[in-house]
Amino acid sequence: MNKVGFFRSIQLKFIIIYILLLILAVQVIGSFFTNRLEDDLTTTFKQSINERVEMLSYNLEQAFIRERSEEDPSLEQEIQTIIEDVNTDNLATTIHVYDNQRRILGTNRIDGRSEVGRKTTDIDVKNTLLFDKSQQKPYFDRETDSRVYVHVEPLVGDDGNTVGAIQFKASMEEVYDQIEGINNIFLQGSILAISISAILGILVARTITKPIQEMREQALIMSNGDFTQQLEIYGRDEIGQLAEAFNDLNSRLKHSYATIEEERRKLSSVLSYMSDGVIATDDSGAVTLMNDAAARMIGLNPDDVIGEDLIDVLKLEEKVVDISKLPDSGSIIIDFSDEETPFIIRANFSTVVDEEEETTGFITVISDVTEQEKIDQERRDFVSNVSHELRTPLTTMKSYLEALSDGAWENKEIAPRFLEVTQKETDRMIRMVNDLLQLSKMDSDELPMHKERTEFMGYVHQVLDRYEMNLPETITLERNIPKGKSFVWMDRDKITQVFDNVITNAFKYSPEGGKVRVNLDVRRHIVIVSILDEGVGIPYDKLDKIFDRFYRADRARTRKLGGTGLGLAITKELVEAHHGKIWAQSKEGRGTTILFTLPLMGSKRGKGK
């Protein structure tokens, strides 16, 4: 936030308002004072003139009514003497005395002696003599360019008749000069007072704005997440109470921010370490947040997708058009698989609403369901295979039993063959059910294991001896077992079942005159068993699948030989239960080799159950 300049600050506004109020007060006081001063001075001036006129009128009236002898001065001389004795203290003051015919009998002006004896045309004098009424008024004299006060007073004789008039004309410029001087003094005082008041206003405004400025700076600090500082409280007035409330707000915000920050860290930690991916968007569907798990799943940088549309990020153009309809769909399976790697994710959508139930955004949780989908597919395939494997013998048995029911049981040649096939198919289903039960127990970890210390070389010789006693004439069994003793911690019955499954398959798939070889290779910590046949072999792309349940490289031949398709799957489970590994090597037309390992005593081994 930019710093507020002085000319835009509240401090200047306080100063301007303070000075304007002061100027207004000075103007009101000055106007009132000037008007009263002017009234008082002009009133005093007029009273002074009127008193002089009154005194002159009395003396002049006595001069008019006095009886004169030849030795006495004339009326004009006496009037002139009376006028000249008056001290006007103002050179601009003019005194004229008129008789009742408006002739000038005397004047105090030396340059106006020539006017004595002349009649005047002054309207004020005329009205005074005519109406026997004094005239008093100020006016502006254009000849002298000054303000003048005129007082015309009638002179009354003994009989009450007007015998003349006196005109007293005095300049008022001295009065107004005095008023102007006083106004100048008042103006200078006002300017001085305003200047001092402006300085005081700055100080006063600073005392008001300083706490506000500190609050502003504190607010800026708080906006950056720093709640450690406190405002200084200068008093208990409203600003002090505001500062105290601000400090209380700071403390509450500090606590709230700490709580929010803790929750944010918890949420960030949860989002960072959770296995599911989380994508947050605004109400328009633009991505605002993506955790690392989601980024790894969809193979994008979280920073690069901010602001991108969720539909584009999850490649939902063909499934969803409107982002607002996503939550209604619950969840969507999205296939991100390529030619080499299968990858399927499940996206679950939810809506974020505010207090007014308005949508403010969307939360999408994505999870990797590739393995789950694979397991589901394997389960479906397993059910399908079990159904198929059971349906074939059941269909055969049903057809033979129906034939027997229709009378074939009476045919001594056909009936035994039909019963023999039915019994074989029944035995095959029993073996299949037993194998399924055994696999089920292995899957649920309920198959008992009775492990014991076993000398492995002698044990293998015993197993192979048993096979040589019932060896088909067309098959040759060759053993390549090193001398010496090696001990293995194992369940003899379960490993015997492993050998049975593998060697039996080798016998089944070996051609007439073929050879089955059993080799043992003792390494440092393991013994490697390899069983080779000279059968038709298995294609390279199917080697990893032969240990899957119900998988057959040659379905028709395997079913003809009575196989259930579960032997190698059981073999793999048993070998891995002994902490070993099993795999196959084969070339089409050149036979197949099944290899498995078992740990020797002293290396990692399982515990008996």
From TrEMBL:
By its UniProt entry, which InterPro entries does this protein fall under? BphY/WalK/GraS-like (IPR050351), Cache_WalK (IPR057640), HAMP_dom (IPR003660), HATPase_C_sf (IPR036890), HATPase_dom (IPR003594), His_kinase_dom (IPR005467), HisK_dim/P_dom (IPR003661), HisK_dim/P_sf (IPR036097)
Q: Residues in domain Histidine kinase?
A: 385-602
State the reactions this protein catalyses: ATP + protein L-histidine = ADP + protein N-phospho-L-histidine
Domain PAS: start-end pairs: 263-311
Q: What is its main location?
A: membrane
Instruction: Enumerate the UniProt keywords alphabetically.
Output: ATP-binding, Cell membrane, Kinase, Membrane, Nucleotide-binding, Phosphoprotein, Transferase, Transmembrane, Transmembrane helix, Two-component regulatory system
Database matches in Pfam families: Cache_WalK (PF23846), HAMP (PF00672), HATPase_c (PF02518), HisKA (PF00512), PAS (PF00989)
Q: Where in the cell is it found?
A: Cell membrane
Q: Where are the transmembrane segments?
A: 12-33, 185-205
Q: Give the record's membrane topology.
A: Multi-pass membrane protein
Taking every annotated instance into account, which residue ranges of this chain make up the domain HAMP?
Answer: 206-258
Q: Which SUPFAM superfamilies match?
A: ATPase domain of HSP90 chaperone/DNA topoisomerase II/histidine kinase, HAMP domain-like, Homodimeric domain of signal transducing histidine kinase, PYP-like sensor domain (PAS domain)
Q: Provide the E.C. number(s) assigned to this enzyme.
A: 2.7.13.3
Query: Which GO molecular function annotations are given, in alphabetical order?
Result: kinase activity
Q: What is this protein's name?
A: histidine kinase
